[in-house]
Design goal:
CATH topology of the largest domain: UDP-n-acetylglucosamine1-carboxyvinyl-transferase, Chain
Bound molecules: shikimate-3-phosphate
CATH class of the largest domain: Alpha Beta
Strand content: 25-35%
Radius of gyration: 21 Å
Distance between the termini: 12 Å
CATH superfamily of the largest domain: Enolpyruvate transferase domain
Number of strands: 23
Shape: globular
CATH architecture of the largest domain: Alpha-beta prism
Structural class: alpha+beta
Number of domains: 2
Number of helices: 13
Largest sheet: 4 strands, mixed
Strand order of the largest sheet: 21-22-1-23
């Protein structure tokens, strides 16, 4: 499948983007092992989260979906999951695989986790090493999926200094920590998204946080409750980008999650000169939310603060496009983790922007992007949802049509991306395998 994007700027509108992917995954996982019922509103009905939902159904959890974005989970309790009869296929989702590896390490049965071509190429040693220290036995293909997990309960508690800043690793260890006989402590090298800690707390599990050190005592059980998922700031970023690049846009994106462990993108864009304001700041359960107002802006390049990388980790494909449309040069560094996301995002973005005539110098841990114009061209998403959406937005202000190939993965995180951008004024058509 491909997109053909004709140049057409976005205009004025108020929109709502789908629910947060990270929070939707966590709601399913914690709801499944909770005591009692958990009703989740604003759930992301994207392919990644639906794969996680199916995986829990395969472990005996009753999950209803009265509406596309509402799920009702009848929690089976900490020890109530049933051994799955077949491999659990988690599609494209690193979050599902890493967090579930933690959860399944504490079960008294074996399970196998697998996924698509992208996921089975991603590094899992980062969770295998600490989970083995806790007593799980995990077989992999040289540190990559499929993972066969021979769980144990109770697990041994650990004190683990994480070598990489990763919310997925931290969360895997906290989920395993629920099944440990004692206190588990995780120390992160930089602050990463803290949705797991917040949701555990909201469900009655005591989690102590002191800067980058997070501790919890095993044996606690989450209690089912009503959870509301804010709109995903990572998806909102593509709408912000389209509005910023357009000559006369004023767009309001409603009810977006603005947890401070996620808002690095707002700071980076503001540093580049973006006209972004938060309105109606409120709380949705344990998560802060706001409406984001974004207006067309003249962006300027500069050196992006590497201290913001872990707070904006998924937003760099969009930020590369912002840099390519900005005046002057933008230097990105500290991005080595981008090479092991759904694709090698540094290479994918350098290749895509290069095909649109933008000068990008790839670095081992980042890139130097020289601002300019986008010319017409054909680009490859490398099967990566965020690369596809970032390059499609570049097409809205290109000199001519931009074709983005291999865009199926957009549905993993942002179902409805094309109709939403079209409502804003963009001209995107979806085509089949054959390119025009
Ligand atoms: C996520 C954490 C991040 C992020 C991913 C979602 C999460 O991954 O890139 O899209 O839900 O915990 P890492 O922890 O690997 O950085």
């Amino acid at each position: 499948m491909h997109y053909t994007v004709e140049p057409a700027p976005v205009g004025n509108a108020a929109v709502t983007v789908p629910g947060d992917k990270s929070i939707s995954h966590r709601a399913l996982m914690l709801g499944a092992i909770a005591d009692g019922e958990t009703q989740v509103g604003g759930f992301l009905a994207g392919e990644d989260c639906l794969a996680t939902l199916d995986a829990f159904r395969a472990m005996g959890v009753a999950i209803e979906r009265p509406e596309a974005t509402t799920v009702r989970i009848t929690g089976v309790g900490r020890s109530g999951l049933a051994a799955p009869e077949a491999e659990l296929d988690l599609g494209n989702s690193g979050t599902a695989m890493r967090l579930m590896a933690g959860l399944l390490s504490g079960q008294p049965f074996d399970s196998t986790l697998t996924g698509d071509a992208s996921l089975t190429g991603r590094p899992m040693q980062r969770i295998i090493t600490p989970l083995k220290q806790m007593g799980a036995r995990i077989d992999s293909r040289n540190g990559k999926p499929p993972l066969t997990i021979r769980g144990r309960c109770p697990l041994d508690p650990v004190h683990y200094d994480m070598p990489v800043a990763s919310a997925q690793v931290k969360s895997a260890l906290l989920l395993a920590g629920l099944y440990a006989g004692g206190e588990t402590t995780v120390v992160e090298p930089a602050v990463t998204r803290d949705h797991t800690e917040r949701m555990l707390g909201a469900m009655g599990v005591a989690v102590a946080r002191d800067g980058c050190r997070i501790s919890m005592t095993g044996g606690q059980s989450p209690g089912g409750r009503a959870l509301s998922v804010p709109a995903d700031l990572s998806s909102a970023t593509f709408v912000m980008l389209a509005a910023l690049l357009s000559p006369r846009a004023d767009v309001l994106i409603r009810n977006v999650g603005v947890n401070p462990t996620r808002t690095g993108v707002l700071e980076i864009l503001k540093d580049m000169g973006a006209d972004l304001t938060l309105e109606n700041e409120a709380r949705l359960g344990e998560e802060p939310v706001a409406d984001i107002r974004v207006r067309s802006s003249r962006l300027t390049g500069g050196a992006v603060d590497p201290g913001l990388v872990s707070l904006a980790i998924d937003e760099f494909p969009a930020l590369f496009v912002a840099a390519a449309a900005a005046e002057g040069e933008t230097v990105f560094s500290g991005l080595e983790e981008l090479r092991v996301k759904e694709s090698d995002r540094i290479a994918a973005m350098a290749g895509g922007l290069g095909s649109l005539g933008v000068e990008v110098r790839e670095l081992a841990d980042g890139a130097i992007v020289r601002g300019g114009r986008f010319r017409s061209g054909t680009v490859d998403s490398h099967g990566d949802h965020r690369v596809a959406m970032a390059l499609a937005v570049a097409g809205t202000i290109a000199d001519g049509p931009v074709i983005v190939r291999d865009v199926e993965a957009v549905d993993t995180s942002f179902p409805g991306f094309v109709p939403l951008l079209t409502d804003l004024g963009a001209a995107i058509t979806v085509g089949g395998e054959d390119l025009p």
